Amino acid sequence: MDLIFEIGSEGRKLSLLPKCDVPEVKVPESQSRKTALHLPHVSENELSRHYSKLAKRSHGVNDGFYPLGSCTMKYNPKVNEIAASFKGFTGVHPLQNERTVQGSMEVIKKTEDTLCEIAGMDAFTLQPAAGAHGEFTGLLLIKAYHVDRGDTKRTKIIVPDSAHGTNPASAAMCGFDVVSIPSQDDGCVDLDALRGAVGDDTAGLMLTNPNTVGLFDKNILQITKIVHDAGGLCYYDGANLNAVMGIARPGDMGFDAVHINLHKTFSTPHGGGGPGAGPVGCKEFLKQFLPGHHVAGDENEGFRYEIETKSIGAVKMFHGNFLVIVRALTYMLMLGKEGVPEASSNAVLNANYMRTKLDDLYEMAYDTTCMHEFVMSLEPLKHKTGVSALDVAKGLLDYGIHPPTMYFPLIVEEALMIEPTETEPKEVLDEAIVALRALYKEATDNPEALHSAPHNTVIGRPDEVGAARNTVLRYQWTD
Amino acid sequence: MGSFVPNTDREQEEMLKEAGYKSFDDMFSCIPDEVRLKRPLNLPSGLSEMEAIREMEEISEKNVTFKHIFRGAGAYNHYIPAIVKSVTAKEEFVTTYTPYQAEISQGVLQSIFEYQTMMCELTGMDVANASHYDGATAAAESIPMCKDRKHKVAYVSSTVHPGTIQVMETYCFGSNTKLVQVPSKDGVTDMDKLAKMLKDDPEAACLVMQQPNFYGIYEDATKLGEIVHEAGAKFVMSVNPIALSVMKTPAECGADVAVGDGQPLGMPIAYGGPYLGFMAAPKSMMRKLPGRIVGETTDDKGNRAYVLTLQAREQHIRREKASSNICSNQALCALTASVYMAAMGADGMKEAATQSTSKAHYLMDALKKAGLKPMFSGEFFNEFITDCPCGSDKLLDALAEKGILGGLPLTENVVLWCTTEMNTKEEMDQVASIVAALISGKEA
């Protein structure tokens, strides 16, 4: 389809601004732009239809099942959007004085308190804008803690080889060296490898639990103890929190700091890749290092901002992705004490239901009770038929199902990671099970068809190698 | 009360049985008993949708919203065309994930490609990423793009937004980078001091400056760029996207990286977020850019197609050697900016920019007549600083009583003012008369 630059014509425009009611002042000649500025020339109707066309060429949670492992693509309640559209939230300036933003501060305080209870932490900052941004923030807390004690030799962060790529990348941005430790055959942390890795240079450990293969690491208390005994701290990557809300808490597992993805666990929409929010929680002894402003006070005495004594500063301007926080709080209010564990229980149930309906055909990387997601290895299928995890994923597109996460975690060959979430009804799971079983049969009967899948989408498989080799990253005008 | 779980209790029981569990408790027996939470969460009971909406609305009403806003300093109250809200509310865009699966994500991918094109046009650069968290984090992440083995020290002008400097400091604490502030003179970067500082430092990696700067004043960016390049360092400009429609582009000023906050492009001020960080650079810096980048290619039938590209820079491939850890960004805000720019067109953006600066000049004249003095003489865009002999708080309270959010108090008697096309002559006259009354000691 045409780019927005290829439709409309010179002179078409919308009628948006009134005439200027004061004398015109131009930018001084020495500062003024010489390069022509090309932007679209379209009427409102054309503009509207252009984006409707683009919308039809996109696939959201609203369009169908989206079992993208580790991304928690649950339904995004519409009530969240209503709350985020209130003028009292959208119309306030971030630098208004405290007296005039008591509502915003109440949102922040209530969200922090709720997250503290769910995560088993003592304090939170809502400043980080995304999960990786939260990791960065949490690791800075750990760094500040060691620096504050004058313990400057703690330069290493331990990360299991099954971790998300953001974990080592965040550690590197905090100036740490990354020590990767192998996982055991059951996908969990190898305690001996961990004992061998810790020392007086250990700053901390980063871990998800449930881990990235979808299993709850039974040795979690030993793991966090080994790190603590060596003088390190434990960081909980909340990517998989949707499995354990109200069931088990990172704080009770021995973690010192966590981040939570509001755009995963707390139902705020992903928006095609953001904005999300990655609040960071910590135990009392780390609170003094939190960035940004901390809300103190209550509804009766009024809320006020305080800055922590040894704050690391700020990881983002102002108060975080505020409207995302509004959405998450609305969701938390609706769930309440009963709904939070109910969500997690059903996320885990849906995953185990799917797992047990597929494990006779597909090889499960770990054939045991999973948490909110499970990993299949298509290595045996590939060996037998030549059909890869990528082929099966692409085949699912023709069924209108968003593929699972592919080739992650790296420790499982030909991995497909399925996370159904709790917001899918049984029939949707059954349809996906039927589709996956049909694809298995197709792989055996007609592997060629799957190599070239998908067949019913607006484009076929794109040439990704060509895209990276001959980079075309913007439209060029010919004039 | 609600958990958005569709399956009924009976269905859940059946599913448990089919999966081989006696109960939820049985299913969770894989979690060791000693870490199980053995009490209900200490949270209020869940609410119905109606109650939740009521509660959130009540909370929102505890905020004071102002009809007239003269405060900027990183959050600008520009007009948002109706079409922007309509397009960005489309559920296909709102509820989708990062477009990893190109075949069913062409709409999102194309919209990002269009966004990248528009940001390149605004900045004059060859490449733009798909977005960053905000302007401050974009500025902070420009530093590692400029560092190499020999060039390790970052410089930032003290006329950059203090919030941006604070974020840069925090990022530099992380990466063990020395960050040095360059002093200002008469409200702009002190070029003589900068030249000397850079000359004495063979390890200088970059200078980050802001145009127009925090005080609203135009810096001589071309000259700053020359000084920086002469010292063998890179030149990073943090820019206002509305101003770019009429101002010298970062490319024209010789910048190696252009960053900024895209909030003025259709995003509400919304207590600080979500906003939009943008980053653009010449092709030579392409592989150092953090974040997603969309490229054009073809599918297996030769049709035009878009994909996420240059992923070898990114964390999921490179892990600790990645150019950044960024994963989720501000995609829907980038879409917002695209729709805004398409709706405004080049002429509309220039009109918004010209009206913003015209009104700032009108307001400054009116405030001068009312008795306030500008602190600096430099030419300015849509923000400027005055003194406030009657006391900032007193003035701002008097304005607030009339539903006006005055400028940002920088000290007890210095205020940073801002105007956009949203401010009318009438309300500016009203501000001036309130100021005049306070200064002369009479009621307005």
From TrEMBL, chain A:
Positions carrying N6-(pyridoxal phosphate)lysine are: K264
Q: What gene is this protein a product of?
A: gcvPB
The protein's name: Probable glycine dehydrogenase (decarboxylating) subunit 2
Can you supply one Gene Ontology CC term for this chain's record? glycine cleavage complex
Record-level GO BP terms: glycine decarboxylation via glycine cleavage system
Q: Which Pfam families match?
A: Aminotran_5, GcvP2_C
Q: What is its EC number?
A: 1.4.4.2
The record's section on InterPro entries has: Aminotrans_V_dom, GcvPB, GDC-P_C, GDC_P, PyrdxlP-dep_Trfase, PyrdxlP-dep_Trfase_major, PyrdxlP-dep_Trfase_small
Function, in words = The glycine cleavage system catalyzes the degradation of glycine. The P protein binds the alpha-amino group of glycine through its pyridoxal phosphate cofactor; CO(2) is released and the remaining methylamine moiety is then transferred to the lipoamide cofactor of the H protein.
Catalytic function, reaction form: N(6)-[(R)-lipoyl]-L-lysyl-[glycine-cleavage complex H protein] + glycine + H(+) = N(6)-[(R)-S(8)-aminomethyldihydrolipoyl]-L-lysyl-[glycine-cleavage complex H protein] + CO2
Quaternary structure, per UniProt, is: The glycine cleavage system is composed of four proteins: P, T, L and H. In this organism, the P 'protein' is a heterodimer of two subunits.
Q: What family does the Swiss-Prot or TrEMBL record give for this protein?
A: Belongs to the GcvP family. C-terminal subunit subfamily.
Q: Which UniProt keywords apply?
A: Oxidoreductase, Pyridoxal phosphate
Protein species of origin: Aminicella lysinilytica
Q: Does the keyword Oxidoreductase apply?
A: yes
| Keyword Oxidoreductase recorded | yes
Query: Where on the tree of life does the source sit, at the highest rank?
Result: Bacteria
Domain (Aminotransferase class V): residue spans on this chain: 153-271
**Which EC class heads this enzyme's classification?**
oxidoreductase
Start and end residues of each Glycine dehydrogenase C-terminal domain: 343-450
Q: Which GO terms describe its molecular function?
A: glycine binding; glycine dehydrogenase (decarboxylating) activity; pyridoxal phosphate binding
- Cofactor(s) annotated in UniProt: pyridoxal 5'-phosphate
The protein's matches in PANTHER family, at most eight in alphabetical order, are given as: GLYCINE DEHYDROGENASE (DECARBOXYLATING), MITOCHONDRIAL, GLYCINE DEHYDROGENASE, DECARBOXYLATING
From TrEMBL, chain B:
Pfam families for the chain: GDC-P (PF02347)
Family annotation (InterPro entries)? GcvPA, GDC-P_N, GDC_P, PyrdxlP-dep_Trfase, PyrdxlP-dep_Trfase_major, PyrdxlP-dep_Trfase_small
Arranged from A to Z, the UniProt key words for this protein are: Oxidoreductase
Give an example GO biological process.
Answer: nucleoside metabolic process
Family recorded in the similarity comment = Belongs to the GcvP family. N-terminal subunit subfamily.
**What is the documented function of this protein?**
The glycine cleavage system catalyzes the degradation of glycine. The P protein binds the alpha-amino group of glycine through its pyridoxal phosphate cofactor; CO(2) is released and the remaining methylamine moiety is then transferred to the lipoamide cofactor of the H protein.
Q: Which HAMAP family match?
A: GcvPA
Q: What is this protein called?
A: Probable glycine dehydrogenase (decarboxylating) subunit 1
Give the gene name. gcvPA
